Hints:
The complex is a heterodimer of chains A (158) and B (111). Chain A is α+β, with helices and mostly antiparallel strands.
Amino acid sequence: MAKTTFVYVTYIRTTPEKLWSALTKREFQEQYWFGMHCESRWTAGSPWQLVSGDGQVFDAGEIVEALPPKRLVIRWQHQNKPELKAEGASLCRMELETTNSAVKLTITHSIEREPSRLIEAVSGGWPKVLSNLKSLLETGAVVLADPYPTAGSRAGNK
Amino acid sequence: MPAQYRETDRLFKALADPSRRKLLDLLHAHDGRSLNDLCEHLEMTRQAVTQHLALLEAVNLVATLRVGREKLHFLNPVPLQEIYERWIAKFEKPRLKALAQLKRKLEKTHG
Lengths: 158, 111
């Protein structure tokens, strides 16, 4: 077991194929990943990048394992902030399992160092991204695209 | 009742117990712990800790990974994020706006 490991689990009422598609296709990613998208051919050994809406490469690495629609393992190194880049590569493992009424998505993000600022940094992002992903697949809309809607439209507010 | 309401009920019930909240705090302080490790920090029987952990896992607040012969417990923050979005973020914006309006009114009166 790697020295620093965080685990994120969500149950999504969808099919493994749809979830796989949402995890690997840009038009889905941009909706739930706050305008970010991944660039990759999604086969073992192919390069992988996480790119922001304005074209900055935030993270880069390669696909270690791709077994659609069950398992995706990415070697993941931060690129933008020097102190996080210096930590080297982390491993992000995504597992999709079918349960009775939903697909269980488990993301295990780990690195061979303790403590890790990279893992701390992504820990703020994953819950929001997963919550958006779940909402997008179940309701067709994300919750956090507009996280703080103004109260102006409510009765009594002027 | 729709499935998501039942899930919310179970989630809040899981959080309504101080021992279970203590378990979440312990995992937050140091993630990926075995049952033995967790028992050392709690004045409860091993059986009680096992039951609390099973309940937390059932509502997805705790995730487990098998590593060799050990089962390690991890805090899963995703349901807490959903509570935040549904039950906190939604309500805090109008209140902050109301406070800002109150401040403006009071300052005008005194100005």
